[in-house]
Amino acid sequence: MQSQQNTTTCRPDDRERAFAQDIYRRHSGALLSFARKLTFGDTHAAEDLVQEAFVRAWRHAERLTAAPDLARPWLFTVVRRLAIDVHRARSIRPEAYHDRQPEPRPVSDGVEETLTSHVMARALARMTPSQREVLVHRYLLDLSVQETASELNIPTGTVKSRSSHAVRALRRTLAADGVPGFEPRRRVPLASP
């Protein structure tokens, strides 16, 4: 009798099930797309981030049900912070992070997007670790200069200069690879008076 009561109380009720189905239906596609960008196209890592975000949403169902307009930004914040945690953990073991190549995705996901993520991942892999780290935090994780400085334990001025140098290096790398839109700029000589 006791074990029957425990199994009954452990099952989610209909409201929880409806909440989980609704939040997944409304936000899973956008979250997975966002997570893929944060993981350089690694679908498995992106799915792990999204799954963990939904588990956390389920744990906070009462709070998110009370404020449904906050569910989407809350989920995106959770995915972003989880990606930061994964990035930190991998930076301790850089070989696990830097040797990864993006996983090719099916054609239905968008050939152009897949090629872009692959080209960017290859270009980032050729950068110095400090440049890559700043670009990932500033542009892929969308952190401010101050947040990036705090995450990397470096001064804000260093974040700005590394970011500037990294963007220039990325442009040069993409131009050298023949990526359209990144051709070297030609300097036009000034006409003499």
TrEMBL record:
Superkingdom to which the source organism belongs: Bacteria
Q: Which Pfam families match?
A: Sigma70_r2 (PF04542), Sigma70_r4_2 (PF08281)
Chain ranges passing through the membrane: none
Task: Look up keyword rRNA-binding and say if it applies.
Answer: no
Domain RNA polymerase sigma factor 70 region 4 type, residue spans: 120-170
GO MF annotations, alphabetized: DNA binding; sigma factor activity
| GO term, biological process aspect, one | response to stress
Q: Which UniProt keywords apply?
A: DNA-binding, Sigma factor, Transcription, Transcription regulation
* Chain ranges of the RNA polymerase sigma-70 region domain: 23-90
Q: Which InterPro entries match?
A: RNA_pol_sigma-70-like (IPR039425), RNA_pol_sigma-70_dom (IPR014284), RNA_pol_sigma70_ECF_CS (IPR000838), RNA_pol_sigma70_r2 (IPR007627), RNA_pol_sigma70_r4_t2 (IPR013249), RNA_pol_sigma_r2 (IPR013325), RNA_pol_sigma_r3/r4-like (IPR013324), WH-like_DNA-bd_sf (IPR036388)
Q: Which family does it belong to?
A: Belongs to the sigma-70 factor family. ECF subfamily.
PANTHER family recorded? ECF RNA POLYMERASE SIGMA FACTOR SIGL (PTHR43133:SF52), RNA POLYMERASE ECF-TYPE SIGMA FACTO (PTHR43133)
Protein name as it appears in the record: RNA polymerase sigma factor
Q: Which organism is it from?
A: Streptomyces phyllanthi
